Structure prediction request, 336 residues.
Amino acid sequence: MATIHDVAHRAGVSTSTVSHVINDTRFVSDETRTRVLQAINELSYQPNRVARSLRARRTHTLGVLLPNSANPFFADMLLGVEAVAYDHGYSVIFGNAIEDPQRELSYLEVLLATQVDGILLISTGIFNEALKTVSARDVPVVLVDRSTEQLGVDSVLTDNAYGGALATQHLLSLGHRRIGCITGPPELIPMAFRIDGYRRAMAEAGVEVDETLIVNGDFQHESGYNGCRKLLSHPEPPTAIFVFNDLMAVGALCALHEAGLRVPEDVSVIGYDNVPLASYTVPRLTTIGQPSQMMGRMATEMLVSRVKNPDLPPRHQLLDVTLIERASCGPLHNRD
Ligand code: RIB
Prediction:
């Protein structure tokens, strides 16, 4: 395998000149640069990546912290991250917090010890701790999905307040008034915005919110199943349910089926995220679509540019969400 000495000898330059050409760490004339690159090509020389990174303090690796890689929403986001990272010559290391803030912090330490060039943080929700840790190490970071623009840190978010209102307005337009909610973990920023959107839409329609029709879930299927059973046990059950993510909506559909209730004839259900599974439930799930893969792509572009230009002012992207109408929502029927 060719060494840096072979390249230097072939190009007629010193090994330090070869190193400066590879790491772009000093001016080298075009004529000399061309001779060095030609020698590298002819010899198929592969610079020692770790040695190169130690010299240039770049590992060309990005760290990604995900709340739960088993959730298709985040798996889809990771596809966008990896595609853009690869195009820019970066590798990706991701840590799966499984919605556990302590696990998130320990993974964060691993990523920082690995000297990643930057971090994409989709936090478990107690992002202040994780963000403080990253900021203290002066590592470029972009916050995705679970954050607010008020932190003065690059962020890529979606309009959760609009999404909550959109889902609720859709159910109201079908005549529903007793509209239940199965929320995600209430401490998460997006949940606060979605429930605000729900309350705003109900208020604008002159419909009073029955707080006993709002139950909390944890984004997993089972909490949607149990939350739906709780709503069905209510003395005056809802005729429609807004579920704050598709995985919980799948659990709710199962509970409704087991209770012998038809969807949407007896109860309408709307989810959130538009994961691929939503197209194949029975009935197919009406939901609010989030551009998860685009979020991953945009956040990675933002992070790569931050790594190259640390002094850029904070940037914030707020992406739209859309109503994806399928078959799980229908007009209010008088229950016979
Ligand atoms: O399904 C996971 C949920 O957590 C999504 O709605 C996403 O917005 C994230 O916050």
Remarks:
- Residues 215 and 230 are 8 Å apart (CA to CA).
- The first strand starts at residue 61 and ends at 66.
